[in-house]
Amino acid sequence: MSTHPPRPREPILNLPTAITLSLLALIGIHAVRLLLSEETDFTLIFYWAVIPARWSVAFGGVQTEEVMRYLSEGVPQDTITPLMALAQYVLADGEGRPWTALTYAFLHGSWAHVLINGVWLAAFGTPIVRRCGAGRFFLLSSVSAIAGAILYAFMNPLQVLPMIGASGAVSGLMAAASWFTFAPASWHWEGRVAQPHERPRERLGDMIRNRQVLIFLGIWFAANYVFAFVQPLGLTDASIAWEAHIGGFLAGLILFPFLDPLPARQKRISA
């Protein structure tokens, strides 16, 4: 008989608790929505989603008539289009519902939408949690989601269709992780090679000169373009709100240095 004790089995997915809870929330909310009637789900979406025209009327000084005129351009008089009817429904109470700048991130259009955001959330949220802790992870995600919603509404002030999805938050996590994920792998931490989340944060100038960072950002922006304007292989059920991606990304890029518990690298070290 072998005298060596059996090795403990490594979990297939070793995700931090904060990531696991976030994924369960996104999956659970979408699963519950599938049990609702179409009318109830319709009401839920329009209550909790970002609708730029609603913000414009409530907070931006835009008149409901201006939205209706915009939607009626090129439409015969006395004709009510589906979008015009939707605008009348959405803008009837005049409420802005500012909380939707965050709640929209918990809603998705399909299981494919949940899957795509969930995979990227696990990939880029995990190193953020391990480096900064759950509290700062949730703060970064929330601010990124809000920034994404604000930029989307600013770019589409008369839009009456709802915008949903965690892409703005995920984009912020991607930007935050780019500060340290692509740092040189030669750094050591407590006598061993440092994991990506343990590496010193790059300085902005070093990031701009880092080829890996530039390739990563190029692929990210190209993917946003493809999914926003081409929508290949039918992977999405609706157009991608690329403005929300950009807003979330910029928020994560700007905010992370203020949340990072580790110091930035002072100078380059030759490998």
Folded structure, characterized:
The protein is mostly helical and 271 residues long. It has one domain (17-259). 58% of the residues lie in helices and 1% in strands. The chain is built from 12 helices and 2 strands. It has helices at residues 17-35, 38-48, 52-59, 64-71, 82-90, 100-103, 111-132, 134-155, 167-177, 204-209, 211-229, 242-259, and strands spanning 188-189, 192-193. It has a two-stranded antiparallel ribbon. Strand 1 (188-189) and strand 2 form a beta hairpin. Helix 8 packs across helix 9 and helix 8 packs antiparallel against helix 12. It is elongated. Mean pLDDT is 83; it is low at 7-12 and 231-238.
Please name the defining characteristics of this protein:
271 residues, two-stranded antiparallel ribbon, 2 strands, elongated, mainly alpha
Largest sheet: 2 strands, antiparallel
Number of helices: 12
Helical content class? 55-70%
Number of strands: 2
Name the poorly predicted regions: 7-12, 231-238
SSE order:
HHHHHHHHHEEHHH
What would the average pLDDT be, to the nearest integer? 83
> What amount of the residues lies in strands?
under 5%
User: Could you give the order of strands across the largest sheet?
Assistant: 1-2
Q: Calculate the terminal CA-CA distance, rounded to whole Å.
A: 46 Å
**Form type:** elongated
Computed over alpha carbons, the radius of gyration is: 22 Å
| Count of discrete domains | 1
Q: By helix and strand content, what is the structural category?
A: mainly alpha
